[in-house]
Every structure is written in structure tokens, then in C-alpha cells.
């Protein structure tokens, strides 16, 4: 059952990424804000377009809006390299923002990952596979198809416990 579940979830993740790639870039920018909100962050806003200073969205770190996290969303098929991440970090520095999330439908190069881990700003990189898993986990773009409960014997119930009420 676990292997079948893993296989189904992998196929669902692949289908989600295919569907995302069929949409326009504005949809993807909305999607990443939706995913972050579903994860429990506060209110988010899609920025995008001219005058966005290199950011596609901003989301409150918590429901009170005590701090903001800036978002870069790249709906790419090519690997995101260090220059793109470096540009995002520069935009964060220009805004005086200490943290950001860079989300792509593809993957990040090793150089991009190393760079993000070394900079002073806290930058989280989310690749396409992780994005799809977050969408599934937080019910963004998916709905429940079927549910199967696998039951097992509750050994605690059958344990010899003199303090348990008679039933």
C-alpha cells in the first residue's frame, strides 16, 4: 500500500507540474502566494509586472504581518542558476528585506544552492518537485479522490490493565 501510495503521489506531482506549465506566468505567481498562505503564512499579495523591483509577490510571515517575506516565482523548464538567485538576493538587499523565497517549476543548480546557503539574507529555494509536494500536502490545486483507511490491532487496548474501566 505504501509503495502504491508513493507511486500515485509521484504521478500526481508530475501532473500538477504539467498543468502549472500550461498556465500563464501570472497564474504561477498567484499559485505560489496561494501555496505559502495554505502553509500558514499570513496574507499575501501578487506583485509582478513593471515596478515590482524584481519581486513577484510578498507574504506576511505571520497572520499579524510582523514581517514580510518577498517571493520570486520562475515558471521555467531550464535549471535556475546562480545569477538568477544572485539577482533575487540583490533585490532583497535593495529593499532591506532579510528573507525571501525563490520558487521555480524546474530545479536549481548546485551553484545556486550553494550561493543561497552562504548569503546573509535567509533565502529558501523551492524547486518544482518540492512545490508539487507542498501543493499536495496543503491541498492547493488538488481535491480528494479516494481515501482508504488501513487499520491495525490496537495493542494498548488489549494490554492487561487493571485500572481500565470494565466495558
What does this 3D model show about the protein?
It is a single chain. This protein is an alpha/beta fold and 167 residues long. It has one domain (2-140): Trna Endonuclease, Chain: A, domain 1 (3-Layer(aba) Sandwich). It has 6 helices and 5 strands, in the order H-H-E-E-E-H-E-H-E-H-H. A 5-stranded mixed sheet has the order 1-2-3-4-5, with helices on both faces. Strand 3, helix 3 and strand 4 form a beta-alpha-beta unit. Helix 1 packs across helix 5 and helix 3 runs parallel beside helix 4. The radius of gyration is 21 Å and the shape is globular.
Question: Major beta sheet, specifics?
Answer: 5 strands, mixed
Give the overall form.
Answer: globular
Instruction: Give the low-pLDDT segments.
Output: none
Secondary-structure element pattern, one letter each: HHEEEHEHEHH
Alpha plus pi helix count: 6
Strand runs, count:
5
Distance between the termini: 34 Å
Task: Tell me briefly what this model is.
This protein is of the alpha/beta class and 167 residues long. It has one domain: Trna Endonuclease, Chain: A, domain 1 (3-Layer(aba) Sandwich), CATH 3.40.1350.10. The chain is built from six helices and five strands.
Amino acid at each position: 500500500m505504501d509503495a502504491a501510495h508513493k507511486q500515485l503521489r509521484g504521478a500526481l506531482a508530475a501532473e500538477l507540474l504539467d498543468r502549472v506549465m500550461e498556465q500563464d506566468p501570472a497564474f504561477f505567481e498567484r499559485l505560489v502566494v496561494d501555496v505559502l498562505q495554505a502553509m500558514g503564512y499570513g496574507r499575501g499579495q501578487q506583485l509582478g509586472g513593471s515596478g515590482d523591483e524584481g519581486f513577484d509577490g510578498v507574504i506576511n510571515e505571520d497572520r499579524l504581518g510582523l514581517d514580510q517575506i518577498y517571493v520570486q516565482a520562475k515558471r521555467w523548464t531550464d535549471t535556475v542558476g546562480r545569477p538568477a538567485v544572485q539577482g533575487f538576493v540583490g533585490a532583497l538587499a535593495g529593499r532591506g528585506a532579510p528573507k525571501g523565497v525563490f520558487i521555480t517549476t524546474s530545479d536549481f543548480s548546485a551553484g545556486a544552492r550553494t550561493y543561497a546557503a552562504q548569503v546573509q539574507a535567509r533565502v529558501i529555494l523551492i524547486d518544482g518537485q518540492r512545490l508539487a509536494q507542498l501543493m499536495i500536502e496543503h491541498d492547493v490545486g488538488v481535491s480528494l479522490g479516494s481515501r482508504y483507511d488501513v487499520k491495525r490491532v490496537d495493542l494498548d487496548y488489549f494490554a492487561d490493565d487493571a485500572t481500565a474501566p470494565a466495558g
